[in-house]
Known about the structure:
By secondary structure, this protein is an alpha/beta fold. Among the domains are: 192 residues, P-loop containing nucleotide triphosphate hydrolases (Rossmann fold, 3-Layer(aba) Sandwich), CATH 3.40.50; 162 residues, no CATH class. 57% of the residues lie in helices and 18% in strands. It contains 17 helices and 15 strands. The strands form three sheets. Strands 2-1-4-5-6-7 form a six-stranded antiparallel sheet, covered by helices on one side. Helix 16 packs across helix 17. It is elongated, with a radius of gyration of 47 Å. About 1% of the residues have low confidence. This is DNA repair protein RecN. Keywords: ATP-binding, DNA damage, DNA repair, Nucleotide-binding.
Amino acid sequence: MLRTLSIQNYAIIDELEIDFSARLNIITGETGAGKSIILGALGLILGQRADSGVLVSKDRKCIVEGTFVAGSKKAIKQYLVDNEFDLQEEVVVRREIAASGKSRAFINDTPVTLSQLNELSSLLVDLHQQFDTLEIGDTDFQREVLDALAGNGELLQSYMVVYRKWQETKKQWESLKDQQLQFNKEADYQQFQYNELEEAAFKENELEDIDAELKMLSNAEGIKTMLDKINFELQESESPLVPQLKSLLHQVHSYEAFHPGLPPLAQRLQSLQIELQDLADEFEQVSSQVNYDPVKIEQLNDRLSMGYRLQKKHGVGDTAGLIAIQLQLGEKLQAVLHIDEEITQKEKESARLFEEAGKLAKKITAARVKEVKPLEDKVNKLLVQVGMPNARIRVDVRADELREFGADVIEFLFDANKSGQFHPLRKVASGGELSRLMLCIKSLVAQSIDLPTMIFDEIDTGISGEAAKQVGIIMKGLALKRQVICITHQPQIAGKADAHYFVYKEKVKDTIKTNIRELKTEERVTAIAQMLSGEKPTAAALENAREMLSN
């Protein structure tokens, strides 16, 4: 419920604060006094668009703040938790508008977006303004009314879980069929590419190794000549290095016992001779392995050419790239073999979920259909109460394909004059008729679900007398379990208030300002009497006002 509303620097409101009761709050005042301005300010903290033109004084901000009591409403507490706001019993919503037109919003002192403000406001307040009746002509709203009265909440949740799974599975099934079609188009070419690479059977780094080997073979003659020459100089020339070193070593050995410096030198010379002998042996071994082989060169060139051609074809630069392409093609071809099995599986799962959703949808439809006659009877009875004795409503439930909220198309049809001709509400009902019809429907729905604070702006337009009294009775009934705030010109409705607020204009320093105050009992008598007979109420009007209050 809305406990307190504070408004500063908005339109012709300089500063005011209203403390609302938890039941039926009635706001009255002369036309133009500023009743709807108060609702306009309230609309700012409910997420409506802001305009810097509403600022009275351009040198300070417009601030509107509402304090709501969450009470036991789980949806509000869950919203605060989900959005990481401070979880408190009171929810403070504030909107600030600067002279520049820049607007900021806060929930429990945490900055928020207008989108977040709208989400929360839908849980806090049901705002029904004078011309805000188009919602009743919306098929979603009409379905929600029927579901609320039928108690379809949990059943609908179960249905929607299954329905969404079915939609997702169906989407996957259709995607697999599209893939299969694409696979079939590409399968022959992919098989050819795979076979080509499989036949080539490249090993890791093979092309790089072939390239290195070809360079060696192409220079084999030069390499062999160089190796043989080195080996010749080391071991076979007229003065070969290895035998010379061996001879020198023998000479040193002959005298090493006679000088302490010779043994180390002899050891080093011996190491050098052994190392040169090893080098000579290795040069000889390498030389024996190097042979110019034109046949092998041709074979390697052919293999390398094939590799380069496949690299260019597949847009890769090494052997690893070709091997990766082969693996990818293999996986795709394998997927083609398995996709039929996946399609069959998804098709069966989709059919199962469709059947399950269909069964739940039938239960939902049955509950809706069962509620149609009681809803028509109750609304038509209430329409008589609110001054529309010739009006009738009919609820049309037609079978449809499975949708997010079941398998029905629901539409409220209306006949204003007992003509027997029923047409969609949105096409034939006037604004005043829609307002009263909305009140009748909401009063029924309120018995089934926990609606938030309900605010009505001049819903009584076009009625008076007994019809206005009946509207007041309906609102009084609504307020037994929830807060209701209503702006009205009808004394019959004002007389039902638990708290009566009077909006008035006053002159402050040559400036006209709007203000509001809660009326005491005798003030209420006078205000209602003035609504009955004018500014100077008669004794009969005063007596009539007292009777209204006592009833």
